[in-house]
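Deliverable D2.4 — example input (structure tokens):
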């Protein structure tokens, strides 16, 4: 009887060992081999908004081997050359491949590389030195795994000059009398004026502008230096002229945030005042009353020219409401109720679905509506 019991114990131990090495979902202890990153081999990259969609390089690497058949998710990581890689290093997913494939490869566009290097601390318009590597993990490995496996490549050094992501899109300037009171300059001819963007680069613009004077006036201008005839000064009926003779636009609703749409080829526009507020069951005022957000005017702030509010939020739903009659709001791009992320940018759209706070706590809510191609919200823990 004692021998039978010992045999059963040994068999159970063997089965446990087999499971732990063959199913990465169960906190695996398998040992992985290194990955060889063969491309890029280095180089210098000057990235520009006008060439954002072109290929910067094609990453090529050997597959990870974890000792068992697995689908592997690979990521490209980047850090400044003076720093060391860690689990929190900036990364982008290259894709999911089988562990028994040959050489894996993935094209990396200038846009993707630029975003990666900016998130790694790169400075806009300044050449910097960075290190790249590829890391592979079993696709079904639990994020909470304390001894999860990872295959890591050699490090490759590059230099690169990132660009401002706003430069990917056509912009339209709105110089005017409100500029100096709204973090810009009055009637600036040097580009120091509010801008709205064309997300499709098709001459159709939209955007929000904060005008902090009682009687604002402005003009549309495609050229910040005021040279040439392509000025787009406005007439009063929702259209504008293409020469210097047009009159200033004079919003009738006084100081505040305005939303614009402009069809430059058709020479038409719309504008309307908006109230930027957070509302919902997650907020202290619930769905009944909005909490208005404040435009950040501090140039030293990481949220300069964004809308912010410090709030205690519950694990519930909310929206950004732009008109008190509920005709305009901002929410999820899918239109469905979704959990937001904590700390990172969460992309939203006009008239989207309800958002949900991932965990109750004190947050700085940051609404970035400077660029119509990338309206986003952040919940920064306080």
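Example output (designed residues):
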């Amino acid at each position: 009887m004692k021998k039978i019991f010992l045999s059963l114990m040994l068999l159970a131990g063997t089965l446990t060992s087999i499971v732990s090495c063959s199913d990465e979902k169960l906190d695996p202890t398998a040992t992985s081999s290194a990955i060889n990153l063969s491309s890029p081999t280095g180089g210098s990259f000057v990235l520009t908004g006008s060439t954002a969609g072109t290929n910067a390089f094609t990453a090529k690497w050997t597959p990870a081997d974890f000792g068992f058949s697995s689908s592997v998710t690979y990521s490209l990581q980047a850090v400044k050359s003076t720093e060391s890689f860690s689990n929190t290093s900036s990364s982008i997913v290259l894709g999911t491949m089988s562990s028994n494939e040959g050489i894996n490869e993935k094209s990396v566009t200038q846009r993707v590389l630029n975003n990666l290097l900016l998130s790694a601390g790169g400075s806009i318009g300044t050449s910097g030195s960075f290190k790249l590597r590829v890391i592979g993990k079993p696709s079904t490995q639990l994020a909470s795994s304390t001894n999860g496996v990872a295959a890591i490549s050699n490090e490759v050094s590059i230099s690169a000059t990132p660009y401002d992501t706003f430069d990917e899109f056509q912009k339209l300037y709105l110089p005017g009398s409100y500029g100096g009171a709204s973090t810009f300059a009055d009637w600036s001819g040097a580009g120091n004026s509010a801008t709205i963007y064309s997300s499709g680069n098709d001459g159709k613009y939209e955007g929000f502008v904060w005008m902090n004077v009682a009687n604002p006036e402005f003009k549309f201008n495609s050229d910040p230096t005021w040279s040439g005839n392509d000025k787009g000064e406005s007439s009063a009926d929702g259209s504008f002229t293409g020469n210097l003779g047009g009159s200033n636009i004079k919003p009738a609703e006084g100081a505040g945030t305005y939303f614009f749409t402009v069809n430059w080829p058709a020479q038409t526009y719309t504008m309307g005042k908006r109230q930027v507020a957070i509302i919902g069951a997650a907020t202290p005022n619930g769905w009944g009353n909005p909490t208005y957000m404040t435009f950040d005017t501090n140039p030293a702030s990481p949220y300069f020219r964004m809308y912010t509010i410090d709030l205690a939020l519950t694990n519930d739903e909310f929206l950004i409401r732009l008109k008190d009659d509920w005709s305009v709001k901002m929410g999820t791009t899918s239109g469905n109720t979704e959990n937001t992320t904590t700390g990172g940018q969460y992309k939203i759209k006009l008239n989207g679905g309800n958002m949900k706070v991932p965990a109750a706590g004190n947050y700085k809510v940051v609404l970035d509506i400077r660029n119509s191609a990338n309206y986003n919200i952040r919940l920064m823990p306080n």
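Residues 1-31 have pLDDT under 50 and may be disordered.
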